[in-house]
Amino acid sequence: MDPSPQSTPPTGDDPAAAADPDLPRLTVTQVEQMKVEARVGDIYRSLFGAAPNTKSIMLELWRDQHIEYLTPGLRHMGPAFHVLDANRPWLCYWMVHPLALLDEALDDDLENDIIDFLARCQDKDGGYSGGPGQLPHLATTYAAVNTLVTIGSERALSSINRGNLYNFMLQMKDVSGAFRMHDGGEIDVRASYTAISVASLVNILDFKLAKGVGDYIARCQTYEGGIAGEPYAEAHGGYTFCGLAALILLNEAEKVDLPSLIGWVAFRQGVECGFQGRTNKLVDGCYSFWQGAAIAFTQKLITIVDKQLKSSYSCKRPSGEDACSTSSYGCTAKKSSSAVDYAKFGFDFIQQSNQIGPLFHNIALQQYILLCSQVLEGGLRDKPGKNRDHYHSCYCLSGLAVSQYSAMTDTGSCPLPQHVLGPYSNLLEPIHPLYNVVLDKYHTAYEFFSEE
Amino acid sequence: MEHTKSGPSSWPELADVVPVPQDDGPSPVVSIAYRDDFREVMDYFRALYLTGERSPRALRLTAEAIELNPGNYTVWHFRRLILESLDFDLLEEMKFVEKIAECNPKNYQIWHHKRWLAEKLGPGIANKEHEFTMKILAIDAKNYHAWSHRQWVLQALGGWETELEYCDHLLKEDVFNNSAWNQRYFVITRSPFLGGLAAMRDSEVDYTIEAILANAQNESPWRYLKGLYKGENNLLVEDERISAVCFKVLKNDWTCVFALSLLLDLLCTGLQPSDELRSTLETIRSSHPETADDDPAAAVCCILQKCDPLRVNYWSWFKDTLSQIS
Ligand SMILES: [Zn+2]
């Protein structure tokens, strides 16, 4: 999911060469995994050995440091960031959103300057580009709209040209129903999510935009249970979030096999306590959000999950019937009319309470984020040994918010202290996880765009 | 043509072009402190992009801009328009994009451009494309973009003949490589030469079981094994090799979560509790009385709750759900 074009060169050491010739050879995967486990193990051992007082300091969220890291970038970025020159609305979102999670208000001038800058990225024919004068792109459109919603002022929300945006999205729609990222650009699940999320958020989603998207996403679910970027590719946390979130916004979650999706995501949480993005890959803090939010969604989809489980287990005793094949009872007829109120699906989802507790280890995940992802000087990272960056700061904190609120069964209340690891002051603002914007900002935008 | 390393302001062919600076407005945000060479190239690029000029000098300029920032999709897009109007040699272009890809293997734009080129070049290019992804995968065997590209080439242009062998080779090198398992699944289900999943299932089950027995803590073959019976739970239960491998692994290590989890699936789908199952559960139960339950599926859930504490929420939920829906 990381849209940044930076490459990460592989490390040079050859693990096979280091192995004892008499022992079974360790593979690259095993060696890399062992290195990470050792590093994380050291950190956790120092936690368990610490005095209670030290323990609670170790588990603190370093709010001030994160704010200090995130704020200056909104004005100035160093020369090395030229590789993100086509991702500038993303840079805005990766700073504005985590600051909102930390409940840190921006000053009015800065907010207005962001609105002006994004207006320069808004194409005259709709959508937002990676920087002034570039082509409109669905991913940067998502970043721009989420940034404006997070700012939340009337000036911010009314700066979005919804009519043009709708036309842009229609042009990005492929005959298959899926979306492409930009004119002549790639088609994948990310494009479908960013399109559907934006359209739902600004209340322009209709049958014409929605048609065929759910079927495309369903084709991307793999034999493992997770969702891939394209049909037949490997199940991946980023795409699993994108696919499931889009399906829920379309009210078509029954189109994927949810029990197997849940089983796959649950198994992506590893001994390091954080999530990996794919089977047998290394833990990475950003999947705290992608995987964490995806599995948290299912706490509100239990009615469908039960139905699917019942149908797949009902064919006990071989009968030769095809009753086992999943997701065959999704009622599509109900959506064939254009009178469906699509914006309602995102709204109803967040109003609805969790039907069950979290299906992942919400406390363990917070432990990974706080102890392994936080950087002392501020900012968050993929894993120990890596550098902080804005992308990981945004998604580690989003994942922290998801896990802090995941044990709540009543939407209106606050999480209990035992569900917030570390001091209760660690509690972040709640988010609307389908869009990944702070919840009260979402409500403001929802009201604003329902009146339009 | 020799490309000098000096900037476009010194290119004779651009003498008549007036560079266009980026319009960031009076008080910019996320303002990048561009180096002079970057700014210069982009200012000239903007000038030609705005007029839509599709010329050799514009093509050369896009190459400069791409080398400085291969993530700029607008530059790539414009480059494709120019290539089309100039009727440029696409094999040359392939060399260009491959040179960029080797330094930036995880970039969406490069792979998209490569796909666009390969589509135009047609089936004759298939083997060269496979060689290229092989080269990238030799450095990072899990590169998601490279795998997606490889799958696209197989479907659109062919080259399936040796793909199963390639998967086998990668799995021999690293049996934990889940991307290689995924590719294997793709090949056995989609290859026009293998007869599809139904024809391949039997031998694949043996292959997978061998991998499991060699390393029962490797999740990939466990998932693959279940995938071989996707949508055909009844056949999964009927294949005695499946329950047998679970028992075999559990005999050595009753805490193997993958074996327990597959066994649970089998029980939920109608596996009749055999004597072997009862005795396996009995052994576990004798040392861990809290896992006792009359229903074998519920008993396995209890064991999982105990030996897979990270997923205790998941297994508790699953156990409750089972008791409700049965
Ligand atoms: Zn990451």
From TrEMBL, chain A:
Transmembrane segments: none annotated. Residues 1-24 are annotated as: Disordered. It comes from the Eukaryota. Keywords: Metal-binding, Prenyltransferase, Repeat, Transferase, Zinc. InterPro entries: FTB (IPR026872), PGGT1B-like (IPR045089), Prenyltrans (IPR001330), Terpenoid_cyclase/PrenylTrfase (IPR008930). Residues 62-437 form the Prenyltransferase alpha-alpha toroid domain. One of its GO terms (biological process) is negative regulation of abscisic acid-activated signaling pathway. Binds 1 zinc ion per subunit. Its EC number is 2.5.1.58. Its cofactor is Zn(2+). One of its GO terms (molecular function) is zinc ion binding. Gene3D superfamilies: 1.50.10.20. GO terms for cellular component: protein farnesyltransferase complex. It is an enzyme of class 2 (transferase). Pfam families: Prenyltrans. Residues 9-21 have a biased composition (Low complexity). It catalyses: L-cysteinyl-[protein] + (2E,6E)-farnesyl diphosphate = S-(2E,6E)-farnesyl-L-cysteinyl-[protein] + diphosphate. CDD domains: FTase. Catalyzes the transfer of a farnesyl moiety from farnesyl diphosphate to a cysteine at the fourth position from the C-terminus of several proteins. The beta subunit is responsible for peptide-binding. Heterodimer of FTA and FTB. Belongs to the protein prenyltransferase subunit beta family. This is Protein farnesyltransferase subunit beta.
UniProtKB/TrEMBL annotation, chain B:
Gene3D superfamilies: Protein prenylyltransferase. Its EC number is 2.5.1.58, 2.5.1.59. It comes from the Eukaryota. It catalyses: geranylgeranyl diphosphate + L-cysteinyl-[protein] = S-geranylgeranyl-L-cysteinyl-[protein] + diphosphate; L-cysteinyl-[protein] + (2E,6E)-farnesyl diphosphate = S-(2E,6E)-farnesyl-L-cysteinyl-[protein] + diphosphate. The keyword Transferase applies. One of its GO terms (molecular function) is protein heterodimerization activity. InterPro entries: Prenyl_trans_a. Its cofactor is Mg(2+). One of its GO terms (cellular component) is protein farnesyltransferase complex. Keywords: Magnesium, Prenyltransferase, Repeat, Transferase. Pfam families: PPTA. GO terms for biological process: negative regulation of abscisic acid-activated signaling pathway; peptide pheromone maturation; regulation of cell shape; regulation of meristem development; response to water deprivation. PANTHER family: PROTEIN FARNESYLTRANSFERASE ALPHA SUBUNIT/RAB GERANYLGERANYL TRANSFERASE ALPHA SUBUNIT (PTHR11129), PROTEIN FARNESYLTRANSFERASE_GERANYLGERANYLTRANSFERASE TYPE-1 SUBUNIT ALPHA (PTHR11129:SF1). Belongs to the protein prenyltransferase subunit alpha family. Essential subunit of both the farnesyltransferase and the geranylgeranyltransferase complex. Contributes to the transfer of a farnesyl or geranylgeranyl moiety from farnesyl or geranylgeranyl diphosphate to a cysteine at the fourth position from the C-terminus of several proteins having the C-terminal sequence Cys-aliphatic-aliphatic-X. This is Protein farnesyltransferase/geranylgeranyltransferase type-1 subunit alpha. It comes from Zea mays (Maize). The lineage of its organism: Eukaryota, Viridiplantae, Streptophyta, Embryophyta, Tracheophyta. The gene is LOC100273635.
